[in-house]
Amino acid sequence: MSVPNFIGIDLFSGAGGMSEGAASVGVKIKVAVELDKYAAITYKTNHPYTEVFNDDIRKFKLGNKVAANKSDVKILFGGPPCQGFSTSNQKTRNKENEDNWLFKEYLRIAKEARADWVIVENVKGIIETEDGYFFDQINKQLHKIGYTTSSAVLNAADYGVPQIRNRVFIVGSLHGAKYTFPTPTTKKHVTVREAISDLPFLNNGANLHELDYRDTIKNYYQKSIRKNSKKSINNLVTRNAKFVLDRYSHIPQGGNWVDRELLQLKSLMEKNL
Q1: What is the pLDDT of residues 130-147, one digit of tens each?
Q2: Residue 82 a catalytic site member
Q3: How far is CA 24 from CA 17, 68, 85, 168, in A?
Q4: Is the pLDDT of residue 222 over 80?
Q5: Half-sphere exposure of 209 (CA within 13 A, CB side)
Q6: In 131-155, which positions are buried (b, 16+ CB within 10 angstroms) versus exposed (e)?
């Protein structure tokens, strides 16, 4: 009996975050689709043997790009554009946003590929956008194609990432299997201080490729990230206006953009008193 190969197709690939995870467990990504030119260049640099389609996904035809043996396992994965589902977007978080309908292209390719497994990733906001319309449609349409789906909201911080980052995952099986999502790997979240306290101090708008680390390795996370690197590279910082920097100073420990919005509202009310 031949050992199956795991064949991957990455849609809306970006710079290749999901492909990195897939490749680390032995998946061979045959093709990736990404519209942004620079993200596609980054992807190709890190995955030189993957065919990268750098254009609008609506123009993409799978054809025979993913030839596979009967014993091979095909996995289709990707995250349709999430900006229109994000809770920080209150202007185009609706059915009128054309990008919010690009999930149909994922479904089109899923139907053509007949992959053994499909994985759809997106922001948590997709569950609430338009009363859950898009989330429900993805599940319903996958069912029509023949997939049994399972879904969950996972927080990256529960798996060792120093960021509270909730993401929705829909996993579909063409063979009727229900997917069991992984349990958290840590009860104690890695803090931002633990993650970056060894990095060099940077000024607003810094543009320095290579710098010495500020400190020696202080914990397991820093050790795992540094590996054998001797220098801190890509020390590039957006140049922010003073009023933006002032906003940052008012965001409390563990806070986010919501605190910034509340600050703006408070300032506006004080001016009108």
Answers
A1: 888 889 999 999 999 999
A2: yes
A3: 11, 20, 29, 21
A4: yes
A5: 0
A6: eeebbeebbebbeeeebebbbeebe
Work out the average pLDDT over 220-242: 93
Dig out the tokens for 270 from the structure.
């004080």
pLDDT tens profile 145-192 = 999 999 999 999 999 999 988 999 999 999 999 999 999 999 899 999
Q: DSSP of 19-85, one letter per residue?
A: HHHHHHTT-EEEEEE---HHHHHHHHHH-TTSEEE-S-GGG---TTSS---TT-EEEEEE----GGG
| C-beta of residue 81 within 8 angstroms of C-beta of residue 122 | no
Which of these, 118, 120, 122, lies nearest to 82 by C-alpha position? 122
Closest to 16 measured CA to CA, from 2, 36, 5, 1: 36
High-pLDDT (> 90) share of the chain, %: 66
Spot the catalytic one: 22, 82, 123, 138. 82
pLDDT, mean of residues 41-48:
97
Q: Which domains does the chain have, with CATH numbers?
A: 6-173 (3.40.50.150), 192-272 (no CATH)
